[in-house]
Design goal:
Length: 123
């Protein structure tokens, strides 16, 4: 779980270093909607694809970080996104949803459940 959070922070840093107008990662949605950047592309060592309320980032080693953005711009994720992250690691981790949920609940804080089944990292 914390590996996902660290990977998300690395994505945020790379995106903000490459796109100076990005104040927070959620701003990528506005940039796509205003057509200032494309819905998909390459930024630093990540490819990205904007979808619905979020974005999927894939690092050059194939690790995937998929995140949605809440109305307030905070980064939120569910167990499916955590599981997919684990499966995409160079040495894949395949865990059950129950094991993921138990792990996430044991990490409160630094993680918090913002709505049933959706989590965010406490800053």
């Amino acid at each position: 779980m914390l590996g996902y959070v660290d990977a998300l922070k690395a994505v945020d840093e790379a995106m903000r270093a490459t796109i100076p107008s990005l104040e927070r990662l959620a701003d990528v949605l506005g940039l796509v909607h205003s057509r200032r950047i494309s819905r998909g592309g390459q930024v630093a060592t990540y490819s990205y694809t904007v979808h619905g309320a979020g974005c999927r980032f894939v690092s050059d080693n194939g690790t995937e970080v998929d995140v949605d953005f809440a109305v307030d711009g905070s980064e939120v994720f569910d167990l499916w996104r955590l599981r997919w992250y684990g499966l995409s690691l160079p040495k894949p981790l395949d865990v059950t949803d129950q094991d993921l949920r138990t792990a996430v609940l044991s990490l409160q804080p630094p993680l918090t459940e913002v709505r049933p089944g959706w989590f965010s990292a406490v800053n």
